[in-house]
Amino acid sequence: MKFEWRKQEKNLYLPKEKPDLITVPQQKFFMLSGKGNPNDEEFSEKIGVLYSLAYAVRMMPKQGYTPDGYFEYTVYPLEGIWDLTEEGKQSNILNKDELLYNIMIRQPDFVTQEVVNKAFENVRKKKTHPLLDDVTFETMEDGLSVQMMHIGSYDDEPQSFEQMKKFIKENNLEITTLKHREIYISDARKTEKSKLKTVLRYMVSHR
């Protein structure tokens, strides 16, 4: 049976359209960091590199190598942790050129450093990519978090963040970092803005 995150990990990837408190376990990611407007060409390039590595892991058995503990699964969605430069934080309006980000694609638990090395090797064989050497493989744990599903344009996210902040306050919680995570359930290239699904998440602690 194929492991599908949409079915088996609904609580993490398909929350309701209202804030909820969850605990996010430790997860492994291919990751790339950067600064600037996500509408720029470089951002798309980075997404492409992450997906080529994610699919290299997924397709390994077809390349004649099956990692220990491998199982059939659907490739995880793109995620991003977002922040602003000091200059960006001073501004009253969002200047997308001042955005700082870490974009990433989660990997199944069976992925070890050895599997990662093989994935890089397989991607390099197909084509050399200047950004490949900037990709890191890291483990992260969001832990206690408040999240909700945002439906609509990325530019309308502040309305959902306001709902989340209200929930956080009402439940005696506080945000531990002003960075937030976004998980892109929809493909922005194929989905009209009003129907985009994005999981928004703040890491929190009890007051």
TrEMBL record:
Name of protein: GyrI-like small molecule binding domain-containing protein
Every GyrI-like small molecule binding domain range: 18-198
Record organism: Clostridium saccharobutylicum DSM 13864
Domain of life of the native organism: Bacteria
